[in-house]
Amino acid sequence: MNLALERFGVWLRSTVVCLCGALGVVSADVADIPLAVSLLVPALLACGVRLYALRRPRLFPLALLWTLDAAVLVLTGLSQPVLGGDGGNVMVEAVVGISVVAFQYEWATRPVAGAALAASGAVVCVLGDVLSSPGHSPDLIPLVRMFVQVTLSRAAYLIVRALARAADRSAAARAAARREADAAAARRATEREYLATLHDTASATLLMVSQGDGRDWSWLPPRARQDLEALSAVPGFETGSIDLAALLGCVPEGEGKARVQLKTRVDGPLAIPSGPGLAIFNGVREAVTNVARHAGVREAELRAWTEGDGVVVELSDAGRGFDPESVPARRRGISGSIIGRMHAVGGSACVTSHPGTGTRVQWRWHGGARASQAGDGAHMTGVPRPPRAQPQHTAVVRFIRGQLLYGAQLAVLLISLVWQFAISLRRLMVHQDVYRPAWAQTAAFVCLAAVAVTGGAYLLRGRQIPPRVRGWSLGSVLAVSAVCAFTLPPEQSTGPADWAFGVVGWHALFLLADLRVRVYAAFLGAHMGLNATAVFLSGAPTAAESAVMGISTISACGFQLSVGVLMTYLLHGTAPAAGTAAAQEEELRTRERIHEDMQRDHKERYRALTATTVPLLVGLGHGVLSPHDEEVRLRCGVEAARMRRLFAESDAVSDPLLNELRACVEVVEHQGVTVSLAVRGRPGEVPVEVRRELVDPVAVILGRTRSTARVTVVWTPRAVRVSVVSEDCADGRGTEEAAQAHDRATDAKVTVARTTRGGSVWVEADWRRPAASGVDLT
Fold this sequence. Notes:
Layout: H1 2-27, H2 33-55, H3 62-83, H4 85-106, H5 111-132, H6 141-210, H7 220-232, E1 241-243, H8 244-248, E2 261-266, E3 271-273, H9 274-295, E4 299-307, E5 310-317, H10 332-344, E6 348-353, E7 359-365, H11 369-377, H12 389-430, H13 438-460, H14 467-486, H15 504-511, H16 517-536, H17 543-610, H18 613-621, H19 630-648, H20 656-670, E8 674-680, H21 688-703, E9 708-715, E10 719-726, H22 733-743, E11 750-757, E12 760-768
Parallel strand pairs: 2-4, 8-9
Antiparallel strand pairs: 1-3, 4-5, 5-7, 6-7, 9-10, 10-12, 11-12
């Protein structure tokens, strides 16, 4: 909005200086024309430089721009005594008056500069009066009128800016609510996808290991390694488009001696289809691993930037380097994980290295049709697509347009009322003896005031003016124009006695603000046509008189038409542009929020598996642990039970705690264990964190039970107790592992008691509800 207002002010002032200056020269004597031109031409050149500065703002310091604006005022003021007569006075008053108004928009964000230029305009008017009429005191009426104009223009800007800022805040609040909803929906969908992946990979593998011996386990190592890779993959980036900058921030650097410190320089956000995005991410991860293994250094630089409609990512190190041509074909770290992966999604990758000179790996993705194809191919079932900008764009544009329209109507209504009662009323009272008849002009004034009050009543109540009321109001305003034009002497048209000519257009603009500018232009044409007809019916005016009327028409109706053009541009140009920018920015923010949440969720999930599941898969995948070992099978059974409890956590059931316990029981029953489950008391609500801590010790004991176990759930008004008794817990390690599980607990306030007698193990998890909860479990 500020940019549009600045352009409006510069163009308005330059146009007025050009047109009014030309008409002022026409009205001057022939002998004065050369000197007047010598003053006005530099003013026009200064306006031209100011227009050029709109296209190249960095080339012109603010001090120079302010000096150019002040020079226009000074040169125009000096032309007043040169031109002389009514034409010179009217021209200078029009140019300076419009200029000081335009300055409030050109320098809207720097009100001190705008006020200083307005004060300079007042000084120029006084100087022009003194030089053109020596010995006479300057006329204060134009100064008062200029002060009113400057005050109204600044007030109008503040009103529109306040509504625009309110629109920004409200749109931001709505966008934040949508972002939270989209992020929550994406997290739920990704959680379901992650649980499904966990169920189909690690859970199934561990369950098969726990259930038998004497098999051919040759399939297990590669399967365990694949499961481990699936668990360590970053979920949530499988949607149609991702922010590559956020994704590259998640590249693992390794740990301990194998850690590579990455110096990341990424110009983000970088929106890219998920297929090439994930290919680059996985390739960078593999390249960082190669740095740790082979480069002999522990530092690397990661850069990413846009190139045309594509993206370039580069990883470089200053290590020992190598000859890429000498790498055997069976080594697929470069050919498969880096180059082949990018070729598969339509991109490219290259490795540049020489012994002793370090290594540089570069990934390139080119946008266009291939980007769409790769992005479409990257969709996964159950994972939400990123939010689209178009639905948000329509709603945001409609809202911003409504706020801008409301602010503009308030500003125009204020100008109409203040101008009518501060400027026009005085003219009407002073020139009563001029009108023929005077009562018609007074009635027209009252009618115009009634139109403003009627329209303002609708506006202040937040309602649109009904079409019928608007039609009658426009007809009344046009009738006021006709009455005032034909009851005023022709020689007084657009002069000091013509109070209606400059105020009628503001009332019409207030009524027609929501329509296209051509409608308002037609009204102004009719208004000017009525006044011109009244003048020409009494005879054609002279060239000088025509020039003076033309200057007055430009300063009044021309300015009003330019404001109408500005309002149309704000409503139909700036508002859609702002809505598009806001929607695109919000789309990126939502994507970043979703990616951040999913990355954080992934880290939490992976951290929960690190102490138990991951070591099992690593050991099984690399042959460190044998599925023939009974202890290994028991550990796999425990982890399978824990995972089944995790799957049951999201079920919509009346008793989630019992549902999760039954999930654990079903796992061990598949292994031939007999389990009896008993419930005492009235079930109630238990937070999910507490349920995890209550069930986990039971899952550990059940997973290590060989034959029979008994699980009991007891509900009391203030506590929930879950106990398990195993008749033959393997090697008594269940109590130790249950203790370790409890030590990993959060602040869930769950206490675990353990007792061992011979081959029997009894474990009880107890949670006492805080007294302030107020929930009755009886």
